[in-house]
Every structure is written in C-alpha cells, then in structure tokens.
Amino acid sequence: MDRAKLTADEQTIYDRHVQNNDDPLTIKYRSRGDVKYFLECYGIEEYTIYRDLKVDVDASVNLNEVFPRSLTKLPIQFDVVNGHFDVSKNGLTTLEGCPRIVKGNFDASSNYLRSLKHFPQEISSSVNLCFNKVLASLDGIPPGTIIHGNFSCAYSDLTSLKGSPQFIKGDFFCNNNHLETLEGGPERVDGSFDCSYNNIVNLIGAPKEVGENFDCSNTYSRKATPGLASLEGSPERIKGNFNCFASHLTTLVGGPKHVNGNFVCVSNLLDNLHGAPKYVGGNMDCSANKLQTLNGFKYVEHKFSIEKNPDLSLVEIAQFKHQTNTELGRCDYKHDEIQKAVETIALHEAMNKAVKQKDDLPMARAISNTQMSATQTGKRKI
C-alpha cells in the first residue's frame, strides 16, 4: 500500500513506529498506520488495509518461525490472501487472525493449536496442520469445506476425525495420532489415505472412495489397544497400494476386493488367506505371519512373497505353485527345492492319471466286472 492511501494521522503513527524502531509485537493495533508497520516489519507486500483494519494481500504471506513462543495469536486480521499463507513453527494456540480466503496453501503446522475455530472458509490448495501436539479435534472447519489439495493433520493429538472435510481432492494424512476410530473422517479422498500409527481396531468410517494408496499399517505399536484386528470398513477397490502390515490381523475378511497396486500384510497373525483380494495388480507380500495354508489366495499379477512363515510346509507351497503357477518372491525355501517338489507332484499326478486311464480300458473293465461277479467261495460264475 502506498503512503497516499493512509490519512495524515495514520501516516504519522506509522512514521513514529519506524523512528522509534518499535517492536511490532508490543504495540496496540488501533489504526491502519499500526497495521502497516506490522506488514512492513515482516516483509509482506502488495497489501490493502481496510478501515476495519482487515488486510488483503495479493501475494503469499510467509510468517514461518518468526514469532516468539509467547505469541499465541496473530496481532492483526487477514481477510483474503491471493497466494500461500504460512504461520508454521510458531507458538499459536488459535487461528484467530488467519485469513478467511487463501488462494494457495494454508500451513499452520508445528504450533500449539487447541482448536480449529477461525479456520479459513476457502482454501484453493493444500492444508498442513501437522505437529500440533495438543490438537485433539478437527472441529471448527466450516461444514462443506472442499480441500483442493492435500490435507495433513498427522503427528498431533487427535482422538477423533469428527469435523474433518468430507471431500479431499489430494491426499489425506492422519497418521501418528491417537485415533481409535475413523468415523467422522472424509467420505471421499481422490489421492492417498494414511491412518497408520493409530489405535484403530477396524476400518469402519474409512473413505468409501480412495483414488490412490491406502495405509493402515503399524497399529499394534500403540500399547493402549490390541491394534488393528479387522479390515471391516475398508474400501472395496483400491487404485494404488494397500498396506496393512505390522498390525494384529488374524483374517483378511472385510478387506478390499480389488487392489491395482501392491497388497502388503507383512507381520500380522494370519494363518490362512481367506478374504484376500480377488485381484492384486502388483505384488502381494504375506511374509512374517503364522500361515499354515495358502487357502483363500485368489490372484496376483506379479510376485507373491511368503517368507518367515515357519508353519508353511514345502508340500503346501509346492502344491500351491503347481496349481496356480504364481511367481513366488521371497520364500523360506529355495527355488530349486520348490521346483523339485512341484515336479514330484506333477509326476504323481501323471502316474495316477495313467492308472485311471488304464482302469477305464474295455479289457480292464471286463476283468474288473468278472472279479466282481465271483462267489463268496472264490468260484467264478460260468
């Protein structure tokens, strides 16, 4: 804003602040001259200050890591920012003073936010609320808010997703919180959905649609709950990868039916594969479980890994390989051992088939019928 837009009194107030080298965080914001001094001190350009002291900015606002820990809210009120707005790595406990409209990214990560009251009504790109260690709820986000980029609230203190935006056009990250349920979360995520490292025991409340990857792994690491024990509530179709490794699963029932990418269920408690996806377009990894059988397996486009399953016998693996011709990845047996076992099974099947064919020949049937007609004394009927 140029000097002509201030009244003489407002300009005098601004000039006095400059002359005295005042601390912008200790002055009272009562005039446009005061507000201009704040904006100039923090290098904010292309701004308009209205008579109600609200500020529009036709550029990005970067207030990253500039305030002392003692400053808990912004001292001025932004309204429309036609760029990114970044107040990350400060000591803010409230979003009061943040803009109503942000035409770029909104970043309030690494603060001490206690609620999301005063959250912007419109954000054109991504939202970052990560590392707000006392943020326990997403309440405060205006209903109907659509996030046009990514939404991240990871590494906070969330116990619920209630209040979450329902439509995310990018990725949704709520990993590394204290969530016990996914209920209240977004219904549609066009990108990836990550709820790993939480206390959830099932996937009820997960988005109905996920455009890319789905990650619900590492849920047994929290000792307050037994960990993810069921995939109930999972989207039926995953366009990317599905990760549920390092959890507490005893069954795959309730999980996705179709996974275009990789399906990874390493380090669980599975003893069979009932409920496995009907189709996996990438690799499937079921290593480090308690598998005793591969019953329930449907189809995988690439490699199927099953190492560190000590109760899974060579015979079971060889029969599986012989029946499905699936390409095996990592396994507790060497490729040559499995191949020899497959060849042995094939040889036995060929011998049994040959014997059956021989038994079906006319002479063999005639001899068999004659033997069946023998009397109890062993004499044949004439």
UniProtKB/TrEMBL annotation:
This protein's name: Pentapeptide repeat-containing protein
